[in-house]
Amino acid sequence: MKREYFSSFKHDRRSQEPRTGHCIALVDARFLVWLAQQSAHGVAGEMVNRQALMSHLSQAMVQAGLEVDLVRVYWYTDRADGFFWDDQIVRWVQTHDVDGGASMLRTLGQDLAQLAQNQAVDHVLIATDDERFLSDIDAAQLRGLSVHVLADESARNMPQMMKSDPGWGRVLAQADRRVVISAQALTEMLQGKLPASLMALPHGATTAPAENLDEVRQVITEVITAWWDEEPEDLREDLRDALQVSRGVPQEVDRQLLLRMRQRLTRALSFNEKKLLREVLRNVVMGTGTASAGPLTQSVPADIDNGA
């Protein structure tokens, strides 16, 4: 029977017609951490690294036959992770221990209702296992919104799911499509406790995850070196003169390099990455080599932030 079920599942998946349109994801952070912990065997993580969240969700939707444009993620949480990612909106809710998830239920439900009422998008991806959302999902679907639910590999066997976790099973059964995210993606997103140094960052500051700093530094160096090699000698001399008399980087140069980095990384640089870029630029222009591999939180003269 089990073999027949999986064979039928694969056949149904192949026969699904791909669907397109715009999509917004509503993600219960507490649930996604729990889901990741089920897959991340041996990894003790308490928070999700949201840097790759949108790409992982988009990939999972493609696998579900949803070739949609994921335009934004709403992240419902009671814990600050210190990051401010593009196209991700944080919704603050009460801790589950305080109100049993009522605040998250109310906030997410209101957002889903607004999206359906305003016909803002074609699809919504929800990441939660709270059975209390069933009526909200049903109401949104009756307004014409396609509502999909994120799940792990266990959702591939719905008969077993209905036995082992009937509440979540009913939520999954209500979905237009069940979007299965791989165990590998969940494991990659799971991270440990928030480091104390991150909690000490000024309000509004952003930083790159520590494990990516060396990689970002290398990319910055490659981009600046390639740009510098293209510059004519007269402009090189002008920039050297400008940097000798000022600690800041000329705005036109700063904007140009920030744009190149955005194109290279397909995202904007964080606050501290911008400071690193300007440090590497000064070293390349003045012929002192690339930036040292010291911590990004050390004091670096603040230049004008052009917001690229």
Provide keyphrases for this structure.
8 strands, alpha/beta, elongated, 2 domains, 308 residues, 50% helix, 6-stranded parallel beta sheet, disordered C terminus, Rossmann fold, two-stranded antiparallel sheet, 14 helices
Structural write-up:
The N and C termini lie far apart (56 Å). The chain is elongated and about 70 Å long. The chain contains 14 helices and 8 strands. The chain is α/β, with parallel strands linked by helices and 308 residues long. It is 50% helix and 13% strand.
| Low-pLDDT regions | 1-15, 192-211, 290-308
Helical proportion, percent range: 40-55%
What is the helix/strand order? HEHEHEEHHEHEHHEHEHHHHH
Q: For the CA atoms, what is the radius of gyration?
A: 23 Å
- Average pLDDT metric: 79
Total of DSSP H or I helical runs spanning 4+ residues: 14
Report strand order across the widest sheet: 4-3-1-5-6-7
| Fold-level CATH name of the largest domain | Rossmann fold
